[in-house]
Amino acid sequence: MVDAAWSDRLLRFFRDMLAFYEEFLSFEKEKYAVLVSGKLKELDTCLKREQAFTLKARGFEHNRVRLLKEAGVSDGTFRELIPKLEPSRQEPMKKLYGEISGTVGRLQSTNSRCSQMTRVKLGRVSHILSNAENHPELKRIYGKKLPDAEPGSTFSEKI
Questions:
Q1: What is the pTM of this model?
Q2: DSSP code of 76?
């Protein structure tokens, strides 16, 4: 059985992790809306924010591994560890674990939708570029440089 102090640390970790993944899920929903709208500048901001979320998720993973090692189950999982907690702490941990699992599942689903939307948008860009190569009139229109285009910008805002 795992001691009460460690159980309390794990409970705080679960609460922090749940709050983080709920925030990450909210962000992913915002990112999907930006992808659908096609606003490139907002998408760039989203990608920068996403990097921060990814780094923080790695930090949670590092802490998860450390906590499991401290509990003496470095090859185990939190699900396997919950029955080893004091009985009074098992139910709250099960509930939090279920909420975390559900949130992470919704996050993965939303992220998958974002990836699919990105593929659709890139497919459209590829199609337009292909058409521009085969039609001199389109090449003339889409080949123009925009006067206020950002340096190193990959896409024309006309697309």
A1: 0.75
A2: S
Q: Long-range contacts: 66-70, Cβ < 8 Å, 24+?
A: 67/9, 67/10, 67/13, 70/6
Q: Which two structure tokens, joined as six digits, stand for 29? A: 């929903």
CA 79 → CA 47, 75, 84, 152, 153, distances in Å?
A: 32, 12, 10, 47, 46
More confident residue, 158 or 111: 111
pLDDT digits (tens, 9 = 90+) for 54-96: 999 999 999 988 888 887 777 778 888 888 888 888 899 999 9
Per DSSP, 84 falls in state: G
Spatial separation of the C-alpha atoms in residues 82 and 92, rounded to whole Å:
10
The residue ranges of every structural domain in the chain are 4-110
